[in-house]
Amino acid sequence: MALWEQLLLFGIPGLLLFCGFHYWTPKLTNKGVPLIFSFWFFLWMPVIILLPLSILLYWLGGGSMIFADFKERFHLVAFSHTDWLWVVGAVIFTIIADQLLEPVGKYFARLRFFSPPSYLPAPFNPLKKFAIPPSKFFGVTLKGNW
Fold first, then answer.
1. Predicted confidence band at 83 (pLDDT cuts at 50, 70, 90)?
2. Where are the alpha helices (H) located in 21-127, listed in sequence order?
3. Contacts of residue 127, Cβ cutoff 8 Å, sequence gap at least 6
4. Are 34 and 140 in contact (CB under 8 A)?
5. Confidence of residue 85 (pLDDT cuts 50, 70, 90)
6. Strand partners, 140
7. What is the value of pTM for the model shown?
8. Under a CB-based contact definition with an 8 Å cutoff, are residues 117 and 124 in contact?
9. What is the pLDDT of residues 1-55, one digit of tens each?
10. Where do the TM regions start and end (predicted)?
């Protein structure tokens, strides 16, 4: 894959995420949009943009909109028992690796270039202490909201 293609595929979503977290989320929260909506909107923004774009490009490339062909192209198949074991293993590995690498995340979060936005709560900001059980999630009180 050429460098310009890699920049398109990874640079544009990365730039959208950066702008969304560092500029647009604070602007929306200042205008009264709750943090829980603005943050998650910008977190999912690349998917919101790229999913319809991938379907459009599939169709423009001569792809059939028959569900069987669509299902085969986008690999929409049910998980097997082995696949679920891989998922469970990956989740367990991710939790363990996150805990082992926590000091590295805190180190980089202290550097200006890598520092997360100050509005981010724990666990999305490694410089903030995460309490178990949490009482708030992105400014929303959890007690009584089940």
1. very high
2. 25-30, 35-60, 67-73, 81-100, 102-110
3. 106, 109, 110, 116
4. yes
5. very high
6. 137
7. 0.72
8. no
9. 788 888 888 888 899 999 999 999 999 999 999 988 999 999 999 999 888 988 8
10. 6-24, 36-60, 84-101
Closest CA to 62 of 50, 75, 70: 70
Q: Which two tokens stand for residue 56?
A: 């459009």
Question: Half-sphere exposure of 96 toward its Cβ, with a 13 Å CA cutoff?
Answer: 6
Query: Rounded to whole angstroms, how far apart are CA atoms 27 and 104?
Result: 30
Return d(Cα 51, Cα 142) in angstroms, integer: 32
Contact, 29 vs 35, CB < 8 A? yes
DSSP state of 83: H
Return the SS3 of 136: strand
